[in-house]
Design goal:
single chain, about 260 residues, Serine Threonine Protein Phosphatase 5, Tetratricopeptide repeat, 3 domains
Length: about 260
């Protein structure tokens, strides 16, 4: 259908005067005209099929789960897991972040001591962005673990995530403090990978760099490089190099041209 419509639009565009009518007749009667019509028809069919497939996939991945979870919550309004599941659908498969946060808030009301829910809501708040709320939720998650005596080295990523929240909120001093604590906990985690340590040192180096502490930044960049050789320098230095690259190419071209002219 779309292919035929595209073909009709094309033909209408050609119909400026009677001479175009003759040209269209010749075009249609020729082999190239029939081939073009087939190509447009096939293109239209494929486009229609892609639209139908996308709608069916949307229905399968979004509409159906939301409908089922909403019905479940109508029957079990105290089911915190159902609120979490529906929130994840909103957050991961739709742009409706507010709806996801509302469901997580309801789940937290039902299970106020579940630190994982605060961490999930912090991630969602970062998407809005609402960094202050993300920091509060992450702090509450850490506090719950500390109060129950469950805070361990494996939870280093909570401090790392809160450090990123502070960084996004333009509070580099607190970001450095959280990255430092994450690095301390990660050093105690026997299952930690080298690349994770490199990333933390790299993030703290960037924060030191923004604060103007070049010596600390240099030390952290070196430490990051020790764990992962890809993380050694501030990427902004590479970006600055890329900015002057066109000028370097231009100068090289001029010099090459001059050498070629004088060589002749």
């Amino acid at each position: 259908m779309l292919g035929l419509a595209m073909f009709v639009v094309h033909m209408v565009h050609l119909s400026a005067d009677s001479a175009d009518i003759e040209s269209r007749t010749v075009f249609l009667s020729g082999s190239s005209g029939r081939a073009s019509l087939k190509v447009l028809a096939v293109s239209g069919f494929l486009m229609c099929w892609a639209v139908v497939w996308a709608l069916m996939d949307w229905r399968r991945r979004v509409v159906k789960p939301l409908r089922e979870l909403t019905w479940q919550l109508s029957q079990e309004p105290e089911n915190a897991d159902a609120y979490v599941d529906r929130a994840l659908v909103y957050l991961n498969r739709t742009p409706l972040v507010d709806h996801g946060i509302a469901d997580l808030t309801k789940a937290i009301e039902l299970e106020p001591d579940a630190w994982e829910l605060y961490d999930l809501r912090a991630d969602a708040s970062r998407l809005l962005p609402n960094y202050e709320q993300a920091i509060l939720d992450r702090t509450r998650a850490i506090a719950i673990l500390a109060e129950t005596g469950e805070l361990a080295a494996e939870h280093w990523w909570l401090y790392a995530s809160r450090g990123l929240d502070h960084e996004l909120a333009a509070d580099d001093d607190r970001a450095i403090a959280d990255f430092t604590e994450a690095i301390r906990l990660l050093a105690e985690d026997e299952e930690a990978e080298r690349v994770e340590k490199a990333i933390l040192f790299y993030w703290r180096a960037m924060a030191h760099q923004r604060c103007g502490d070049r010596e600390s930044a240099k030390r952290d960049f070196s430490e990051a490089h020790r764990h992962d050789r890809l993380r050694r320098y501030d990427p902004r230095s590479w970006w600055q190099a890329m900015k002057v690259l066109p000028y370097a190419i231009l100068i090289w071209g001029l010099l090459y041209s001059l050498i070629w002219v004088f060589a002749e």
